[in-house]
Amino acid sequence: MPRKPILTSAFLVLAAGFLVLFIGGGARFAVGLTLKPIVDDLGWSRSELGLAVGLFQVVSATAMFFAGRLTDRAGPRLVLGLGLFVSGIGIGLMSLMSEPWHALLLYGVIYALGNGAASMAPVGVMVTRAFPQRTGSANAVVMSGMSVGQLLMIAALAAVLTMVSWHAVYVTLGLAHLVLLPVVIAAVPKASPSERKAAQPAAGLGITEAARTRQFWLLIVIYAICGFDDFFVSTHVVAFAEDRGVNAFMAGNLLALMGLTGLIGVVAAGAASDRVGPIWPTVLSFAARVAVFGLVTVDQSPLSVAVFALVFGATFLVTAPLTVVFVAVSFGTRHLGALIGSITMVHHIFGGFGAWLGAALFDARDNYDAAFALMFAVSLIAMVLSFMLQRPGLRATRSA
């Protein structure tokens, strides 16, 4: 009988984490959905909105790092609650944008701070503590919320966009965050200081010790390239599809369908990591990216655009649960939040650079050809580096 409350609590944690990433997954991709309508309506250049995306990535990445550290100390409930509140305010007020600096402030700073707090860093810590066995599968399930959110929310928001306006998209997203806030607070129990101390593992490397290892720096570079790819594609794929003759509604739903293939990819990667470790799913993910970036470099027909988007979508979240697995088995779990946060921070900072650079290259050349060639090259580098990762074995046996 004593097991039932534990299981119930663990699955409530899983559900809460899924919902946080579901809303965050849908909201994070909304800027890609609305990029072309916003710049057409307000007379901005794509690089002006791309700059806001780049700032978002840097600020949210930094917030993820501190959110991870705070989660290690205070638990996830407070961090997720504050994150959802700030996110809701920031993204909701984007409906009132009229100048480029509004996007920089609301999306690049306020929403970024909230999104960085209500992110995979505290969720990953929360789920790993609740499911110490089959960590890869549990984190894959909860992080599939980002793919499901992308699939369902972007499809719904694409309809809102075509029937109402881009303003209504951001009002809807702001309300969704605020409605979720009390649900998460109720689902994630408040732990006492003694319970938090008992839940914190005794062994594991801190950032300083982990940074002395080759494994850590390989992960940093691989995740930097991953983010560079990810946010270039998520920010520009809808506009690119429309540029190549796909109508606005279908282009928006193409982004949503990337969430479906992403769901398949992330669940498969999490299950595979429990059986063969995280290296092979990482290698295969980058191999698929090399293939589709190569395809779209030479053929940009609507069919090739669709193949590119759907195959890339299958790789989009593969590395998210693998971050937790790599960190846990390579460095231990005592400082799990801080280490996840540091790697994710680099991922998002380079993601912001990728989103901005894609916009800048488009504005300079009136096409994405140079950007696709660059993404092909860096994805090939990441694939090679993935082979160089050491098969993780728990070396973090002392307290940092």
Compact summary:
With 400 residues, this protein is mainly alpha-helical. The protein is 83% helix and 0% strand. The protein has a single domain, classed as MFS general substrate transporter like domains (Growth Hormone, Chain: A, Up-down Bundle).
Can you walk through the features of this model?
The chain has 400 residues and is mainly alpha-helical. The chain has a single domain (9-388), classed as Growth Hormone, Chain: A (Up-down Bundle), CATH 1.20.1250.20. Helix content is 83%, strand content 0%. Helix 1 runs parallel beside helix 7 (135-163) and helix 7 runs antiparallel to helix 8 (166-187). The radius of gyration is 20 Å and the shape is globular. The protein starts with a helix and ends in a 12-residue tail after the last helix. The model is unreliable at 1-7 and 394-400 (pLDDT under 50).
List keywords for this structure.
400 residues, mainly alpha, 83% helix, disordered C terminus
